[in-house]
């Protein structure tokens, strides 16, 4: 899989300075793609991360700041990239609360970052892909794009929206060499998730093993976290010739969560 078959392609990955986004960026770079990293900050650390990725994989990597809650900045990210053969809409945030108590500002932010940003980046990227005669759009949805959990109304609504938007994008590009698919991860072991484990251990007075198996992975039958590398490899597959007729669908990387 990791022959440099993406050499000459440029991949823009939103929300990619850590976690799933960074894992995908690494795998795309390993496959030969030049990469644009993104987040809402603009620090020396951000640009150093891009340099590190470039040196590790022998490709060009840039960091471009853009706030995914703002439509104009989403579109400007693609324009500043200058080329976008592969678009990975990964940026996302979460908040948990009952519907009557859910803060309106949190709702608006989650819908903007998790859903509307994908619309804006896709709208800006499609003309570039059409001009190039090739393109791959990979939307990072969630198991919550296919099922639901209580107290996650905004996140579930946004991720279901991402799945629907994926299908529409695929239909609008079906006769072109452009595909659009969604990856639906379950629980992925990211630094953010790792940081939550000690607090959850204290909250429930449980061991690390019990927290992982009985709280975090309660709905994940494999009782194993997915890894950022596995999500990245799935994204690389979707960019390959083997996936040329795979469009408008979802791939669940969730240890069997959505099989139940």
From TrEMBL:
This is 3-hydroxybutyrate dehydrogenase. GO terms for molecular function: 3-hydroxybutyrate dehydrogenase activity. It holds the Pfam family adh_short_C2. It comes from Paracoccus stylophorae. Keywords: Oxidoreductase. Belongs to the short-chain dehydrogenases/reductases (SDR) family. Its EC number is 1.1.1.30. Gene3D superfamilies: NAD(P)-binding Rossmann-like Domain (3.40.50.720). It is an enzyme of class 1 (oxidoreductase). PROSITE patterns: ADH_SHORT. The keyword Oxidoreductase applies.
